Predict the structure of Ribosomal protein S18 acetylase RimI-like enzyme.
Amino acid sequence: MSEPDVQLVPMGLAHLAGVLELGHRVFDVSAMPYTSWSLSSVAVHLDAQPDACWVAEADGQVAGFALGSLSYDDQTDWGYLEWLAVAPEHRGRGLARTLLEESCAALFAAGATRVITDVEQANTASAQLMQRCGFHDSVTVTLFVRHAPGSARQARARGRHTDPAKARLHAAARRTQGG
Ligand SMILES: CC(C)(COP(=O)(O)OP(=O)(O)OC[C@H]1O[C@@H](n2cnc3c(N)ncnc32)[C@H](O)[C@@H]1OP(=O)(O)O)[C@@H](O)C(=O)NCCC(=O)NCCS
């Protein structure tokens, strides 16, 4: 089967659902740094800095996106490339690099003196991409987490109630062990 044609286009309102869906497919939204992925996060980018929001389209579907904004931690002349993703079936063809370049060009044109992006430690693909595109390591921040007392037990108990299929499996396993 031949590869579909992929086009880079500025993101528009019609892309909202596709971008949101692709993000949910490729980001683990239960873990940092992806927990803030949401429709409002996408919409805020499109609203504030539409020229820094780009989409790759393949057969009318969203195959990738880059969402940038101007300002990072109150630094109004720092661009922030916060969200970047390419669908697994379209990876390894330079799409992320092209999306990133478009977004950065827009941020520089809008007055950014630098562009910041953050990469989770285990995400070697993204780290390599950034290095290849002229980003260099800066500050490393480690999130230390302290859980509330008893929270692991509570989470296990919640899990039991919220997933009926798992609850049935566990009950069956307990019956087997018991008998
Ligand atoms: C990271 C990601 C965006 C790369 O997309 P992609 O379209 O496959 O990347 P490209 O083809 O443009 O690759 C550009 C460069 O990135 C690097 N790269 C990309 N994928 C890589 C991988 N799996 N391992 C190592 N390096 C990789 C390479 O250096 C590559 O350059 P080269 O081909 O000249 O060696 C994609 O894997 C993805 O969507 N991952 C999940 C979401 C994510 O982590 N987003 C970034 C944080 S928000």
Summary: The chain has two domains: 6-141, 146-179. Residues 12 and 46 are 8 Å apart (CA to CA). The chain is about 40% helix and 20% strand.
